[in-house]
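Closing statement on the flavin-adenine dinucleotide sub-project.
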Amino acid sequence: MPAALVCFRDDLRLSDNPALSDALNEGMDIVPLFTWYAAEQCGEAPTGAARWWLHNALEDLDEALRERGSHMAFMKGPALDCILRAAKKSKARDVYWNRRDSPALARLDDKLEEQLREAGLRVHTSESANLHSAEALLHKGRHYRVFRPYYEAARKTSVRKSCSNAPNKLNASPFAGDGPVDTLGLSTHLNWTAGIRKTWAATRAGMELLLNELPLVVRDYDLWRDIPYRRATSRLSPYLRFGQISACELLQRVHSQCEQCPGMDAFVRQLYWREFARHILHYNPALPEKAMDERFDNICWREDPELLARWQEGRTGFPIVDAGMRQLWQTGWMHNRVRMIAGSFLVKDLLMDWRKGAAWFMNTLVDADTANNSYGWQWVAGCGADAAPYFRVFNPVTQSRKFDPDGHYIRRFVPELANMPNKWIHAPWEAPLQELREAEVELGKDYPLPMLDHSKARERALAAYKSAKTENNLHV
Ligand SMILES: Cc1cc2nc3c(=O)[nH]c(=O)nc-3n(C[C@H](O)[C@H](O)[C@H](O)COP(=O)(O)OP(=O)(O)OC[C@H]3O[C@@H](n4cnc5c(N)ncnc54)[C@H](O)[C@@H]3O)c2cc1C
């Protein structure tokens, strides 16, 4: 049978993988291939925790291929060189891949496709990352900027059908590649993954455990998803990020396993937020660098590495913010509600550039994803599509009292405050000295004093945002 290269990228799975099933349906012997060249990732190469994830997900995919009689060929170097070399060695004339939807990577792929065609190869590409193509959801020829009408239109549009189960058996691949996954050098530089390793298995088995819990999660999703100490969200984000499960397959599983669950609509809606962020990035390639509402690129952000480090390390003196930042550092993940609170604290309270927060998240999150992260940060900063209005400034104490009323989440990640009574744990600086003594907390020694006064910081942020808006109006 003729051989065909199947290039895996952000789609590290064997089921619902259109590139793989197209090649198999054409009767090809497939040569699974993963090439890696950080310089060729347009600044979107996974770093830090996500790179650790990628390494492990690749190892697991190789194992899945081996269980079926094949293996992954890993190659390090520019994609064009690797693919040409792999095609020559395996006598393949056809190359299959699923299109990536980040605009920068899609452009790179278009160029690669052209070069491969010029070199005499046939390139076959498919859509796989999203529920819908971005082009399928336009309103009067323009993309949606507001979620609600987008969502209403999307729910009426048919979703790409999840295409196939994983093949049971594959013919042996004729091409070994350059060596095992370690050849790529993905995980060697990490020195802080102990907690991440304890929390996550970046494998099919790890994902199946979470998928088995899905009906329970979805049942009460609407009720508990904002409560960070509960395991009330799916935690599937890193598996979605690396395409270990497709959004279509997940949606199908939700529909079939959770149909009677009261929280199903709320959960499905979140999958559409992911989709919305991807479509926004598709039409706004500068999303990671430029505010969609350009007026807010005039803000005079503060530059202070020491303050930034206190936020990054969870030493702000605001327990809910510190708990979130420590959860991130220790586990490579942070609950969505706390991402909003900690993000708002950096941008509004500390008046620091949202891009600094986005960069830290990209390095520390296992689910680091250009679309969701840039969209999330612009939402928090009030400068994105359908963002929180700029004058909405999260009060970290009010948020903490509302979403972690008994302080369980804080106690877990800020153990210095474990003995603080519920009444004072959200704002320990307000506690009477006697309460602090009984909880064995000396502020400034065991736990930091708050690094700022929230109401003053709020006023400063509002003034800065207002002036950026006015300044811009003057320029027009
Ligand atoms: C500042 C900020 C940065 C963020 N950065 C990322 C990121 O880098 N990668 C990432 O995957 N998500 C990001 N999010 C979105 C969200 O926080 C995570 O997707 C969610 O917490 C993942 O947990 P889960 O899988 O348990 O989600 P669930 O609640 O179980 O939701 C299921 C899936 O829906 C999607 N989803 C849920 N909430 C959102 C949302 N608000 N926006 C977009 N998609 C959503 C995710 O793919 C998620 O896995 C960010 C949010 C904020 C506010």
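Strands lie at 3-7, 29-36, 73-76, 92-98, 122-126, 138-139, 142-143. With this model delivered, the sub-project is considered complete and its resources will be redirected to Aim 3.
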